[in-house]
Amino acid sequence: MRQAERDIDQLFVIRRYCDRLDKALNRFGATYDAFADDTVFQDSCSLCIIQIGEAVNRLSERFVLSHPEIDWSRIYGMRCHLVHGYEMSDSEIVWDAIEHCIPPLRAFCEQQTASENEDFL
């Protein structure tokens, strides 16, 4: 498999976890108060963000450098914070990522994969 195909595969992975994040928001409530009060909601969203960060980390350097409009290092940094921060996770920071980082990332991935085979999803 060529690197460009691997990059597209990872964009589809990101899209899938964005979809799962949306399902969590729909199930638990799309408000910060609901998020802050429910550790199961927080865990569900955190897992999606971690998986998104993993997929971002698997993108080629060439792809990442050719798309500076996405803050790839911040996305991966959030993944690292959630994985290695142990009990130091701040629900406000995670919620900010959900509200402000995920929507443009999702739109970017949808645009980049629009011409690809949708059966992959």
Outline the structure in words.
- This protein is mainly alpha-helical.
- It has one domain (3-113).
- Helices cover 76% and strands 0% of the residues.
- It is built from six helices and no strands.
- The protein has helices spanning 3-28, 32-37, 39-57, 61-65, 72-84, 91-113.
- Helix 1 crosses helix 6 (91-113).
- The chain starts with a helix and ends in an 8-residue tail after the last helix.
Tags for this model:
mainly alpha
Cα radius of gyration in angstroms: 14 Å
Mean pLDDT: 91
Q: Which consecutive residue ranges, at least 5 long each, have pLDDT under 50?
A: none
Tell me the helix content: over 70%
Q: Which percent band covers the strand fraction?
A: under 5%
Q: Concise description?
A:
The protein has six helices and no strands. It is mostly helical and 121 residues long.
SSE inventory with pairings:
Blueprint (H helix, E strand, L loop, with lengths): L2 H26 L3 H6 L1 H19 L3 H5 L6 H13 L6 H23 L8
Helix pairs in contact: 1-3, 1-6, 3-5
